[in-house]
Amino acid sequence: MLARFDHTDVPVTTTEAAGARRAAKRLKAAAEGQQDVRIQIDGSELAVPLPARAVEIMVSVLSAMADGQSISVIAQQAELSTQQAADFLNVSRPFVVKLIDDGKLPARKVNRHRRILFADLVAYDKQSRADRMSALAEMAREARDLGLE
User: Fold this and answer.
1) What DSSP string describes 78-131?
2) Which domain holds residue 50?
3) d(Cα 56, Cα 16) in Å, to the nearest integer?
């Protein structure tokens, strides 16, 4: 399923998944080689140039589509609601509100509603993961020091 942040699910058919798999396989070498490509439209003289970074993104999208995974493509400057942020972090909406109220996640108010920049949400998620990894490493160190391994 391809998912958008508006929670509209778009099912991927078996035919589409197979086509996505073939396309990803053909584009993978160009993506790994960081090459620009030109995509020719069937039955047309139209050829669309894609920069190497777009090719890399397309391979990721096509691979996810081929595997039936949910994906989201969103601009870094997009603003999300607290529910959308909670869905992204896989936490509850009240937890996101608490993060905002505690100053751990930047947000702005639009009337009564909070809006979070996607870039800020990604930065929070990255820092949170790093903090968890650091805490786990510290716990492992303490377990070794105490001879509990």
Assistant:
1) -EE-HHHHHHHHTS-HHHHHHHHHTTSS--EEETTEEEEEHHHHHHHHHHHHHH
2) 2-66
3) 19
Can you read off the two tokens belonging to residue 126? Answer: 């990255």
The tokens for 97 are: 């509100």
**Number of domains observed in the structure of the chain:** 2
How close are the terminal C-alpha atoms of the chain, in Å? 42
Whether 129 and 91 map to the same domain: the answer is yes
- 92 and 125: one domain? yes
Would you say the pTM of this structure is higher than 0.70? Answer: no
* 3-state percent helix, strand, coil for the chain, nearest multiple of 5: 55, 15, 30
Do 84 and 140 belong together in one domain?
Answer: yes
The answer to whether residues 96 and 139 belong to one domain is yes
What are the phi and psi torsion angles at 49 (to 5°)?
Answer: -80, 140
Q: What is the pLDDT of residues 4-44, one digit of tens each?
A: 455 456 678 889 889 999 999 989 988 888 888 888 888 88
pLDDT digits (tens, 9 = 90+) for 106-127: 999 999 999 999 999 999 999 9
Per-residue pLDDT at 2:
42
